[in-house]
Write a structure and sequence with these properties.
Elements (H helix, E strand, L loop, with lengths): L4 H4 L3 H19 L2 H6 E6 L4 E6 L4 E7 L4 E6 L5 E6 L5 E6 L4 E7 L4 E6 L5 E6 L4 E6 L4 E7 L4 E6 L6 E5 L4 E5 L1
Antiparallel strand pairs: 1-2, 2-3, 4-5, 5-6, 6-7, 8-9, 9-10, 10-11, 12-13, 13-14
Amino acid sequence: MKTNWDFVLPSPKRWRMNKLALALTLACLLAPASTRAQNAYITNLVSNTVSVINTATDTVIATIPVGLAPFGVAVSPDGSKVYITHENIFGTVSVIDTARTTVIATIPVGRLPLGVAVKPDGSKVYVASLADGIVSVIDTATNTVSATIPVGLSSVGVAVAPDGSKVYVADEIASLAAPYR
């Protein structure tokens, strides 16, 4: 039996696809131009891998095992590292060394991390965790969480201002984005 809510609330499959589209769009927009021109990094949720695609030839040049349910992607400004969130309750971020196409670190963060963004100077990575309503701040020099910031009920997306002065966090339940300094 259909109710009025059937037309308002998206199906779980559509909701997942919307999140995926948002993550891919943000990853493409926030990656440095030099990195976008060389390779694209695409998460494969079911196979727990990341495909590296040469954008000049449109071919897969590597497939990297990264762990359970990879989702969000962010590339460091110099293109040397890729940060992958894992859409699961364990809450981790994989760090890929792009020269070696291997995972060099796995960093624990909040549960159900989705959004990920790198500060323009490459010194920090911000990870929005849906289940905990937090943003984890990763120090890229040590690959450790240097701060945890409570931001709301369900943080899903994160972006950094071009000058690095602010971080914007999208909250799924509140339907808003708020800056954090």
